[in-house]
UniProtKB/TrEMBL annotation:
It is found in: Cytoplasm. PROSITE patterns: PTS_HPR_DOM (PS51350). Keywords: Cytoplasm, Phosphotransferase system. Gene3D superfamilies: HPr-like. This is HPr family phosphocarrier protein. GO terms for biological process: phosphoenolpyruvate-dependent sugar phosphotransferase system. Residues 1-88 form the HPr domain. PANTHER family: PHOSPHOCARRIER PROTEIN HPR, PHOSPHOCARRIER PROTEIN NPR. GO terms for cellular component: cytoplasm. It holds the Pfam family PTS-HPr. Its main location: cytoplasm.
Length: 91
């Protein structure tokens, strides 16, 4: 298992669109992917779980991947989060 802390940079947090992008990215990998936010452990492949977590802009989360492609999954998912999950970021 590998993990990395990242900060959510989306101005409106992980609402429907970025949560969908995050889940779609996680689904490309065989590894199990969890997002840890405080006491919550969220399955990243479930868009509803990601949205329901109510993760806001500026929140530091830990992405943890476990499986055959965990290194690649962690790198891809954390880069997607750090780049705003396809949303335009405020300057």
């Amino acid at each position: 298992m590998v993990s990395k802390k990242v900060k959510v940079v989306n101005p409106s947090g992980l609402h429907l669109r970025p949560a969908g992008v995050l889940s779609q990215t996680a689904m490309k990998f065989k590894s199990r992917t969890l997002i840890e936010c405080g006491e919550k452990h969220i399955v990243a492949k479930s868009v509803l779980n990601v949205m329901a977590a109510g993760i806001k802009c500026g929140t530091e989360i830990t992405v943890a991947c476990d499986g055959p492609d965990e290194e690649e999954a962690l790198k891809t998912i954390t880069e997607a989060i750090e780049s705003g999950l396809g949303e335009e970021l405020e300057q």
